[in-house]
Structure formats: structure tokens, C-alpha cells
């Protein structure tokens, strides 16, 4: 099996704090890999380090075999990674249309290429809000816009940080459908604390604890091991809490 | 009534000039998060280069272009050479840009002397007309028209072009712009150069406007432009326009009726605006990127 992303003993600091202290895992191509761990385990920091916002202090990050740890964020994005952050994932003062144009690197002002149309079909809400500032959308609509922005450039790799946070059940089901639809064509690294949702979409899991990878394997196995879930996610870290 | 009109027109003329400097300052702050305390130095060098060139060649339009060019060249050198390394280091930036301001103000004395230069108005712009008891000064109106045109061009750039969209996006969330594969550092340089060119251009206009250029003019303008940007809301071009006109007109009246209180009142206006709207008239609370 081909691995698109490989992290090998990654250490990273934020300021003087050592946040990542040995993160190693591999993300197989065209699968959904879920990155789990309790609050503050370092999941967001791991994604931000892959994206080049945080420089790894030690260790290696490779994409398709090539080191990307020294590249800047826009270069990493151009290698084919789309990133959907946990917070502030849309431009609030730009319209929905402008948000999609920003994300679609090949878009030209004025006319809407067929990729934008496809996003509109996928996310019907956005068509009605086309000219509105993204800041005026509901939380769920913003998350859908952010997802559309991440998908529009058809990047082969997607890093998605807790997309279900704060979503109503209806939107969570939309999200599950969308993520399932990506399998087989895109490689997804998903941060998700909702074990049920992770079970619906993920093929493999990686468990972080205190800035280190402590477990990884088949998602079905994690679903059966309640002891692992309790030890690394806490009893309350399941669906409905937070 | 005639005095009133004269003071209003004078205030708008000053405001148009202020706007050219404040617009660049506010754009640079909005995108780069840098308060460029050397902005007045770029204005100063624009003024001297243009005045010198006009004295030698008598080519007014060429002088304007050279003034803007001088600002842009100095600005790019500053951004690439100094600031690039200092993003996210707030206090260092303030000290460095202030240092650059002092250097620019002192070094202008080396070739041009300490006493300043005369800056004559080109003859084709030096008419004036008496309408009732109000004197209409051609160069003042020229400055107002140029200021309005620059505002419209900036508005078009920011609202109607892809670069403008990227700038607006970057003002809000520079990190997310990078995730879109756009090298935000290059956008920073473009915006810094644009702001610097506007400051140099303003300097070139300011020579004939005030009749002379002096080594101290940069620091004066720096202070005024900073107050305007705070009043208007840091990062907002519209705010810079409204703030410039407000400060221009208020100062115009104050320096006629109570000249000694003029600066104090500008600072008071700023204090009142900040009390009512801490983010300035047109500023928006920003999202942490
Ligand atoms: N800017 C920062 N300065 C200092 N510490 C930080 C900063 N950002 C994150 N941290 C710390 O780094 C650790 C990991 O944070 P991170 O956001 O990566 O965790 P996470 O697993 O994504 O958590 P959550 O589930 O709450 O999103 C936490 O202890 C956090 O307090
Ligand atoms: Mg997180």
C-alpha cells in the first residue's frame, strides 16, 4: 500500500513549550485516517506542523517520499494538500463566492467554472448565500463553505480538523456522507473526537497522547477496544459530550 | 460664511493630502500588522526628490512619478531588508521603523541642507479665482481631485480585482491565505510598496502645496497620519478617508481660531473616538489567525 504522508519522530515547539514530542505515523493513499486523542493532546498542532505553520524541531515529514518539513505553507499547499482548520476556516468579510475563488487557485474573476457549480450542487445552501459575507452564515453553513473551499481545488490530500464541532445532527450526517464520498479518490487525515463519526468514515486511526503517538491501527479494532477509548479519550470523549 | 467656506475647502485640501499617507499606513497595518513609523520618512524623501527634480527639469508630472518611485524603492528596500525578519515582533518593529524614520529625516540634510527647499507651484496649476469673497486656489483643487481619484482607484483595486480580494482576505486571516497556496510574503511586499509609493507621491504633491519642503515635514505628517489611522480604524481605507477629512477640517478651523490648540484638539478627537469605538470609526474586531 502506498503512503502519501509520513511523519517520523516529529518534535515541535510553540514558543518555549514542547508540544509534539515524538509523533510518527503514516497516512495510506485514498483512505480516511483519523487522528484522535484527548483535548490538548496535540492533534491540531500536528496538522499545523504538516502545513508548515509550525516548524518541526526534529524528525521528518514526507509527502510521497519527498521531505516537506522545510517548505513554507503556500508551497506545501501547492504540493497538493488542502487544509481545513478547526477555527477561522472561512474569510468572514468575503462573500461566499469570494471564499470559493480564494480557495480555487485556477479560478478567474467573473465567471464560475464548472468546479464551482459542482460545489453548489454538493452544498445547496451556498448557492442561495452566494453574495452574502461568509460571516453572516450559520455555524453549519460556515463549516459547509469551509468544506467546499477545501474540496474545490481537487487537491489529492485533505487535512480536516474537527469538522463536526458544534454541528447540529443534520449537518453531522451531511458531513459523514461527504467524507465517505471522498474514499477511494482522496487521502484524508481527519481530526475527530467523536468516536461514532470516526467509526463511520475512518479506515485507520492514530492515537495521540501528550504530544506522542501511542497507538495506531485499524479503526474497527479501536471501536471494539473500550479500554483504549477510556484510557486515551476518557469516558466522556464520546458522542454528545464537549 | 466666506471664512467658513474657505476653511472647509482648505481642510478638505489638507485632508486629501493626509489621505494619501494614511491610506498606505492603514493598508500596511491591516495586512502586515506593522505600524510603519517610517512612513513619514518615505513622504519626506518623495517630497525632496520631486522638488529637486522639478527644480532641475521643470517637468511637474515627471517629478510626481519620481516622488512616488522614490517612496516605492525605499519601501521595498525596507520591507525586504528589515521588516521581513521582524514580522510577529511588535516592539522590535516599532523601534526599527522609528529608527529608520530618524535616519531618513537626518540623511535628507546631507545633500539638501538643513533649511529646506523652495517648492514652486507649476505655472499651469497656479491660478486662483475670487468667487464672492472666497478665494479658490487651483493647486488646492488639484490636490482634492487627485486625492479623490486615488481613493476611487484603491476602492476598485480592493473590491474588483483578484489582488484586492487576496489583500482583503489577508487582512482578515493571513494564515488561511497561505493555505490557499498564495505566497503571502509577496503580497506583503506589493502592499508595502504600494503604500510607500503613495507616501512618496503625497510628498511630491505636498511641496507645491505648502510652498517648501523641510527636513521636519516627515515627522509632522507621521504624527497626523497615525492619529488619522487610529480614528478611522486600523486597516480600513474608508476609515482613512473619513479620518483624513475630519482631521483636515478640524485642524483648519482650529488653526484659524485657536492656533495654539490645534494639535491638542486632534488628539482629543482621537481620544473621543477611541472611547466610543475602540476599534476606530470603520475598524472591525479581528479574528485571531
Ligand atoms: N499558541 C500556543 N501557545 C502555547 N501553548 C499552546 C499553543 N497552542 C497550543 N498550545 C498547547 O499545545 C497543546 C496541544 O494543543 P493542540 O491544539 O494541538 O491540541 P488538540 O489535540 O488539537 O486539542 P483540542 O482537542 O482541544 O483541539 C495544548 O496543551 C495547548 O495548550
Ligand atoms: Mg485541536
How does this model look, in words?
The complex is a heterodimer of chains A (242) and B (289). Chain A has 2 domains: 167 residues, 3-Layer(aba) Sandwich (Rossmann fold), CATH 3.40.50; 64 residues, no CATH class. In chain A, 35% of the residues lie in helices and 27% in strands. Chain A contains 10 helices and 10 strands. Chain A has a 6-stranded mixed sheet with strand order 6-7-8-3-9-10, with helices on both faces. Chain A has a 4-stranded antiparallel sheet with strand order 2-1-4-5, with helices on one face. Chain B has one domain. Chain B is built from 11 helices and 4 strands; from the N terminus they run H-H-H-H-H-E-E-E-H-H-H-E-H-H-H. In chain B, helix 1 packs antiparallel against helix 10 and helix 9 packs parallel to helix 11. The model of chain B has no long low-confidence stretch (mean pLDDT 92). Chains A and B meet through helix 2 and helix 3 of A and helix 7 of B. The site of magnesium ion has 4 residues of chain A, from helix 1. Magnesium ion binds next to helix 1 of chain A.
What are the salient characteristics of this protein?
heterodimer; A: Rossmann fold; 2 domains; 6-stranded mixed sheet; 4-stranded antiparallel sheet; B: 289 residues; mainly alpha; 11 helices; globular; binds adenosine-5'-triphosphate; binds magnesium ion
Q: SS-based structural class of chain B?
A: mainly alpha
The level-1 CATH class of the largest domain in chain A: Alpha Beta
Distinct ligand kinds:
adenosine-5'-triphosphate, magnesium ion
Tell me what portion of residues of chain A adopts beta-strand conformation. 25-35%
By DSSP (H or I, 4+ residues per run), the number of helices of chain A equals 10
Q: Give me the strand/helix succession of chain A.
A: EEEHEEHEHHHHEHEHEEHH
SSE order of chain B, one letter for each helix or strand: HHHHHEEEHHHEHHH
The Cα radius of gyration of chain B reads: 19 Å
Let me know the number of strands of chain B. 4
Distance between the termini of chain A: 36 Å
Largest binding interface between chains: A-B, 24 and 23 residues
Amino acid at each position: 500500500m502506498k503512503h502519501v504522508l509520513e511523519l517520523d519522530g516529529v518534535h515541535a515547539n510553540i514558543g518555549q513549550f514542547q508540544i509534539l514530542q515524538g509523533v510518527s505515523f503514516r497516512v495510506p493513499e485514498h483512505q480516511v485516517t483519523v487522528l484522535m486523542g484527548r483535548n490538548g493532546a496535540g492533534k491540531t498542532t500536528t496538522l499545523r506542523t504538516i502545513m508548515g505553520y509550525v516548524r518541526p524541531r526534529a524528525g521528518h515529514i514526507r509527502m510521497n517520499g519527498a521531505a516537506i518539513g522545510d517548505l513554507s505553507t503556500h508551497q506545501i499547499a501547492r504540493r497538493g494538500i488542502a487544509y481545513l482548520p478547526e477555527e477561522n476556516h472561512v474569510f468572514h468579510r468575503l462573500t461566499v463566492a469570494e471564499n470559493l475563488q480564494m480557495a480555487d487557485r485556477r479560478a478567474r474573476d467573473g465567471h464560475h467554472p464548472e468546479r464551482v457549480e459542482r460545489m453548489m450542487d454538493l452544498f445547496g445552501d451556498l448557492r442561495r448565500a452566494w453574495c452574502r459575507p461568509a460571516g453572516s452564515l450559520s455555524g453549519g453553513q460556515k463549516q459547509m463553505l469551509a468544506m467546499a473551499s477545501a474540496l474545490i481545488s481537487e487537491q489529492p490530500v485533505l487535512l480536516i480538523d474537527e469538522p463536526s464541532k458544534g454541528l447540529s445532527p443534520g449537518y453531522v450526517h451531511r458531513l459523514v456522507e461527504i467524507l465517505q464520498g471522498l474514499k477511494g479518490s482522496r487521502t484524508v487525515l481527519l481530526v475527530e473526537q467523536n468516536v461514532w463519526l470516526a467509526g463511520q468514515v475512518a479506515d485507520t486511526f492514530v492515537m495521540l497522547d501528550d504530544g506522542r503517538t501511542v497507538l495506531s491501527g485499524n479503526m474497527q479494532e479501536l471501536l471494539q477496544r473500550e479500554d483504549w477509548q477510556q484510557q486515551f479519550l476518557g469516558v466522556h470523549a464520546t458522542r454528545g459530550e464537549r | 460664511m466666506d471664512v467658513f467656506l474657505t476653511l472647509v475647502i482648505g481642510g478638505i485640501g489638507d485632508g486629501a493630502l493626509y489621505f494619501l499617507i494614511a491610506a498606505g499606513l492603514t493598508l500596511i497595518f491591516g495586512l502586515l500588522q506593522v505600524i510603519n513609523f517610517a512612513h513619514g520618512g518615505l513622504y519626506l524623501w518623495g517630497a525632496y526628490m520631486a522638488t529637486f527634480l522639478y527644480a532641475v527639469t521643470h517637468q511637474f508630472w515627471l517629478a510626481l512619478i519620481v516622488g512616488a518611485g522614490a517612496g516605492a524603492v525605499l519601501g521595498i528596500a525596507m520591507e525586504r531588508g528589515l521588516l521581513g525578519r521582524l514580522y510577529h515582533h511588535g516592539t522590535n518593529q516599532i523601534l526599527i521603523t522609528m529608527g529608520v524614520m530618524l535616519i531618513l529625516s537626518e540623511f535628507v540634510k546631507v545633500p539638501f541642507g538643513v533649511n529646506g527647499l523652495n517648492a514652486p507651484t507649476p505655472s499651469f496649476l497656479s491660478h486662483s479665482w475670487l468667487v464672492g469673497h472666497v478665494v479658490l486656489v487651483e493647486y488646492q483643487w488639484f490636490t482634492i481631485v487627485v486625492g479623490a481619484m486615488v481613493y476611487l482607484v484603491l476602492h476598485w483595486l480592493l473590491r474588483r480585482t483578484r489582488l484586492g480580494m487576496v489583500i482583503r482576505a489577508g487582512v482578515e486571516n493571513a494564515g488561511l491565505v497561505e493555505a490557499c497556496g498564495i505566497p503571502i510574503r509577496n503580497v506583503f511586499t506589493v502592499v508595502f510598496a504600494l503604500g510607500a509609493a503613495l507616501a512618496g507621491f503625497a510628498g511630491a504633491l505636498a511641496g507645491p502645496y505648502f510652498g517648501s519642503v523641510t527636513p521636519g515635514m516627515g515627522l509632522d505628517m507621521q504624527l497626523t497620519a497615525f492619529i488619522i489611522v487610529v480614528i478611522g480604524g486600523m486597516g480600513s481605507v474608508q476609515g482613512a478617508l473619513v479620518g483624513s477629512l475630519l482631521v483636515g477640517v478640524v485642524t483648519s478651523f482650529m488653526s484659524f481660531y485657536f492656533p495654539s490648540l490645534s494639535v491638542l484638539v486632534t488628539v482629543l478627537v482621537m481620544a473621543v473616538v477611541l472611547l466610543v469605538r475602540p476599534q476606530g470609526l470603520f475598524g472591525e474586531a479581528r479574528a485571531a489567525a
